[in-house]
Amino acid sequence: AQSVTQLDSQVPVFEEAPVELRCNYSSSVSVYLFWYVQYPNQGLQLLLKYLSGSTLVKGINGFEAEFNKSQTSFHLRKPSVHISDTAEYFCADFRHNNAGNMLTFGGGTRLMVKP
Amino acid sequence: DTEVTQTPKHLVMGMTNKKSLKCEQHMGHRAMYWYKQKAKKPPELMFVYSYEKLSINESVPSRFSPECPNSSLLNLHLHALQPEDSALYLCASSQLTSGGQYNEQFFGPGTRLTVL
Predict the structure, then answer these.
(1) Residue A13, exposed/middle/buried by CB under 10 A (0-12, 13-18, 19+)?
(2) Pairing between strand A23-26 and A3-6?
(3) Alpha carbon of B17 to those of B33, B81, B113: distances in Å?
(4) What does the alpha-carbon distance between residue A13 and residue A114 come to, in Å, rounded to a whole number?
(5) B45 and A102: CB-CB below 8 Å?
(6) Is A103 on the interface with B (CB under 8 A)?
(7) Are B89 and B74 in contact (CB under 8 A)?
(8) What confidence tens digit (pLDDT) does each residue in A72-98 have?
(9) Calpha distance B7→A38 (Å, rounded)
(10) What does residue A84 show for φ and ψ, rounded to 5 degrees?
(11) Contact B110 A101 (CB under 8 A)
(12) Segment B66-93, tens digit of pLDDT
């Protein structure tokens, strides 16, 4: 079985400060991990994904994440946030079975960037 | 065209109404998905269609009835809903390949449903 856990429901941070949003996964099989962003009243947009290869993954809008197998983590980071980064962020994993492909999301972290 | 469109954007309905949500994509994707997202919660998978056939139903009540009339369209028919069904309904689509290969899901903006 696979699951992802987001450790913080809300992260307040001042503009131009660095931020880390935490995600831990639990899996005994191959891991595919993702970060999605959801701006208010919008759908989900893929920020970045880890499928294999380099453990440091760079995404859009200056975000990056590091896959850490020993700590079973996939934390999202940005060195300097903007007001426009205020949004809900979801970590997710991917499962495939005979029925189809499924994304399972963590509980979400609300990033609140303050001026 | 990498867009998934959903109509309507907002819908208010009574518990005795019948309404439908629509989703459309023209990316040639053969997998389409319905998710339900309650306020301040993550999306939860409801249905998956693969090659226009229902492949996954996550134990969704029968008052929600999905339909995939062709490879570009996905509908969600609603009947006799309850106020607790009020939520954002998200549609997504992806390529479909064998062997468990990952294919990115592209999400629409959602329909915000309010049941009175």
Answers:
(1) middle
(2) antiparallel
(3) 24, 8, 13
(4) 6
(5) yes
(6) yes
(7) no
(8) 999 999 999 999 999 999 999 887 766
(9) 19
(10) -70, -10
(11) no
(12) 999 999 999 999 999 999 999 999 999 9
Question: Which three-class secondary structure state does DSSP give residue A61?
Answer: helix
Preferred mutation among B5, B36, B107 to probe A, highest tally of A CBs within 10 A: B107
Query: What distance in Å separates residue A10's CA from the closest CA in chain B?
Result: 11
Residue A41 makes CB contacts below 8 A (sequence gap 6+) with B112
Q: Is the peptide bond before B8 cis (omega within 30 degrees of 0)?
A: yes
CB-based contact A85:A78 (threshold 8 Å): yes
Alpha-carbon span A59 to A36, nearest angstrom: 10
- Concatenating the DSSP letter of every residue in B8-75 gives -SEEEE-TT-EEEEEEEE-S--SEEEEEEE-TTS--EEEEEEETTEEEEE-S--TTEEEEEEETTEEE
